[in-house]
Automatic annotation (TrEMBL):
Family the entry assigns: Belongs to the phosphate acetyltransferase and butyryltransferase family.
Species name: Haloechinothrix aidingensis
Keywords: Acyltransferase, Transferase
Stored Pfam families: PTA_PTB
Single GO MF descriptor: acyltransferase activity
UniProt cross-references to InterPro entries, sorted A to Z: P_Ac_Bu_trans (IPR012147), P_AcTrfase_dom1 (IPR042113), P_AcTrfase_dom2 (IPR042112), Phos_Acetyltrans/Butyryltrans (IPR050500), PTA_PTB (IPR002505)
All copies of domain Phosphate acetyl/butaryl transferase, residue ranges: 10-316
Transmembrane segments: none
Protein name, per record: Phosphotransacetylase
Length: 340
């Protein structure tokens, strides 16, 4: 999948800011991204990045841009933070202005990068806090959500959501998860989404407030996106297996053919994607953050360099979406900093 994504991006060579330039995994990923036609902007002091490259046995070529936190603070990224943190408590604002993570995220609204990837050395909560403070939510989004792209051993591609952000989504949030994940799935795979709103009940087979919530969220999705193929509430087997879908929900256009699975809460989603990954041997790409005004994505602290490459490519694809392009600042790296 990576080769196909990079081929789609080749025409405009996107720039992706990578936090934690002291990490050998990040520098290794930067070298691979440059080879794939994506310009990495590695954030760290020259000594940190050079030491990491030496430890990884990686050569820093001319297509890899390196910027230190001090350089960022003194240019457009620092200006962005001054503006975005102006309403924060003074003590926290001072702390965040000096934080390399906040400075890395600020490269995107500052026009120094098209997307940002962070989290190899920081918890998800830190990355989300920086993204919300510095980038903010998209105008049409009611909240930030997440999804995973799951690729089964046979090549079948699915999306699972929300597996990383919203613990107990309400009706509106669950609808937001469905709409955003359908868009993400289409942009990454080129396939039309068939969205299953999951529950322990199929079409009223159980009576419970949890199933009622899923049914209400399904109706809200239909109100928001009339053209999106969505149905619920559906049990997983009814959504995934054609024969079960016919038996339990014969009139459904989604049952038995779903490729986007919206879980009722974070516990179910997180458990579900890990079971699919570990027992079915699926590849799990994500979490992919959705609903931000500009692309910022998180990494697991246990990620590999290959994981960083994949998430960076996904982030670059997000930056090429029409809504993201319209929000992109007009100034380039060269205009802001004089760097090539």
């Amino acid at each position: 999948m990576l080769a196909g994504w990079c081929a789609r991006l080749a025409a405009h060579r996107p720039r992706v800011a990578l936090a934690d330039g002291h990490d050998a995994r990040v520098v290794t990923a930067a070298a691979e991204l440059a080879a794939h036609g994506i310009t990495p902007v590695v954030i760290g002091t020259r000594q940190e990045v050079t030491s990491a490259a030496s430890a990884a046995g990686v050569r820093l070529g001319p297509d890899i841009v390196t910027m230190s936190p001090c350089e960022l603070a003194a240019c457009a990224a620092g200006e962005v933070l001054d503006e975005r943190l102006s309403t924060a408590p003074a003590e926290r604002a001072a702390e965040w202005r000096a934080d390399p993570l906040f400075l890395t995220v600020a490269t995107v609204p500052a026009g120094l990068a098209d997307a940002c990837v962070a989290g190899s050395a920081r918890p998800t909560a830190d990355v989300l806090r920086a993204a919300l403070r510095v980038v903010g939510t998209a105008p049409a989004a009611s909240c930030v959500t997440s999804s995973f792209l799951m690729v089964l051993p046979g090549g079948r591609r699915l999306a699972y959501a929300d597996c990383a952000v919203l613990p107990e989504p309400d009706r509106e949030q669950l609808a937001e998860v469905a709409v955003a994940t359908g868009t993400t799935f289409r942009s990454l795979t080129g396939e039309e989404p068939a969205v299953a709103m999951l529950s322990f009940s199929t079409k009223g087979s159980a009576s419970h407030a949890g199933a009622d919530l899923v049914r209400a969220a399904t109706e809200r999705v239909r109100e928001r996106e009339p053209g999106l193929d969505v149905d619920g509430e559906l049990q997983f087997d009814a959504a995934f297996i054609e024969s079960v879908g016919r038996s339990k929900a014969g009139a459904s256009t989604v049952a038995g053919r779903a490729n986007v699975f919206v879980f009722p809460n974070l516990a179910a989603g997180n458990i579900g994607y890990k079971i699919t990954q570990r027992l079915a041997g699926a590849q799990a790409y994500g979490p992919i953050l959705q609903g931000l005004a500009m692309p910022v994505n998180d990494l697991s602290r246990g990620c590999s360099s290959a994981d960083i490459v994949t998430v960076a490519a996904i982030s670059a694809l997000q930056s090429s979406a029409p809504a993201m392009r319209s929000a992109e600042p007009p100034l380039s790296v060269t205009a802001r900093t004089g760097r090539q």
